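Let us work through a complete example step by step.
Step 1: write down the sequence.
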Amino acid sequence: MRRAVIALVCALVTAGSLAVVPSVSALGVAPVGSVGIDVSYPNCGMPVPAATFGIVGVTGGAPYTANPCLASQATQVRALSLYANTGWNPKSPYISATSPHRCARTDSSCPAYNYGYNAGLAAFALAAKAGVRASTWWLDVELGNTWGAVAQNRASLQGEYDALRARGVATIGAYSTTVQWASITGAWVNGWPSWGATVLTSLAQARTYCTGHRFTGGATWLIQFRSVSGADLDVACLVPSAPSAPRGLKAAFPRSHTAAVAWAAPIFPGTARVSSYRVRWSSTAGRTWSPWVSVGLHRTATRTRLVKGHAYRVQVRAINAVGAGAVVTLVFTQRR
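Step 2: predict the structure and record it as tokens.
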């Protein structure tokens, strides 16, 4: 993102030519194949063209700096995400040896962690002061900022990640390239969502980078490319996802001391077909549970030897090739 002043394009690729699938939140920040735009302090004073989604920089090119146009830019985009510049500067006046952790003299990673943690708090405070909130943030990891040893760099990034988590940010990913990520972090595999930076100049090229460029080890959510006018655009990739929760879970009592539960398929099966359902039961108000048991693709399960008048809980989740989906819970009292 640390580029020369960018001339914004006023016309993006039309949405009609892009593939859209249901359940935006299950796939990432935007519908698969849709095109968004990212802007920050270099774009101050320029209009932000319409796009399916937008990512706005909170900082002004380095940690502990501010994008003076954050508030105005954030109001001009839909499906807002935010990003913050990162780094580790051992000569920074913002280094703390006591907050959030008290650092031992021999621990060189602790001050770096504190530096990143407090940078995350500072960035979040800047956004809050501007009245801007987003559930997805990106950590901008580029060689243009100050860095040190790999261990300290990782500590700083982890600190910033943890600070945003502590402030309730649901999703935090990394913006970088494979080369820069390897140089700064030693090719750290942490599973964070990745947003890939490129010098590509076409949507078709950018789409091909949605696979094979997982520099964090996590799924690639976005690939950045540049319009012919020099604007930073981003294509949303398909993010592998597990199923949503099964629907309509209910209990029946076909005979004494027996409960039979049934449910409907999830609204969203994820990015792979549902391969099975798993069920578990609790007779202790959820304090302890039986092991998860697969019932295959059958959407029913039965439990015997139950006590009339006693309260039970049952949970069901769907499974696909990505993993276990969201859980639905039913509390019922045995009637027979």
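Step 3: interpret the result. The CA atoms of residues 73 and 88 lie 27 Å apart.
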